[in-house]
Please model this.
Amino acid sequence: MKIAVIADIHANLVALHAVMADMEAWQPDKIVVAGDIVNRGPRPAECFQTVQEKVTGDHRWLALGGNHEDYVIALAEELLDTRHPIPTTRYVAFRPVYWTSEKLLNDISALAALPFQQSIDAPDGSEVRVVHASMRGNRDGIYPTTSDRTLATQIAPAPPLFCVGHTHRPLIRTIDGTLVANVGSVGLPFDGDTRASYGRFQWRGDHWEAEIRRVAYDLQQAERDFIQTGFSDEGGPLTQVMLSELRSARSLLYVWSKHYESLVMAGKMTVEQAVDDYLISLA
Model:
């Protein structure tokens, strides 16, 4: 039995297509999409529709929701609630997510229907479990630095194979007989390697073997999509931080938010000023 697990596509259609082609060559029995299909990238509707078509048309495909689906759903509700206008500062500060929500307004019910986890039966009847981040929630990530003590609580009750995404940093670990894999990110890796990442799992006799697969794709086209879709212009200045993340394969938006978001929300800096200041500091 062969299982492929992909996660954190983040609206990067070019990377998704490359990984899909690589998986097809391998011919897995099951393919699980572990959340964060949309947001933080230029082609959210296309990526979500591609996954939905596979889930509905190919019995091998399963999908679940991540924290970025949660964000999009929440902001779509704000866009649809005409009784309470969105404050201008909030709209500008979170413009990339509102842009994504606008593109997915017709898909919100389908996004909301994505489950928290997917489980597959192994050949011996045991469980293969896939969630977005951990059993403790969609934002509770498993990192290379996560201690065994913490990890044990994040996977409980522990199956023989437990797969996640969320952190964009791939890893394979074994703890108390459980093979734990973070499959990394298809569309936005944060480990310094710009190639797409996903997990391959193969049943060998009486146990699972795991591999983190890296796939090169047309990064320049992924960058052009920021412009060609209108994401860069219509999504506002923060899309430039996201573009820098794509180019560097490093997490940048979290640091920007930590240092600048409160200043922007308080009206002490514009988003454009905060982004310019941050990008200059990185140069």
Summary: The CA atoms of residues 148 and 168 lie 19 Å apart. The first strand starts at residue 2 and ends at 6. Strands lie at 2-6, 30-34, 61-64, 117-121, 127-131, 161-164, 171-175, 178-182, 196-204, 207-215. The longest helix spans residues 13-26.
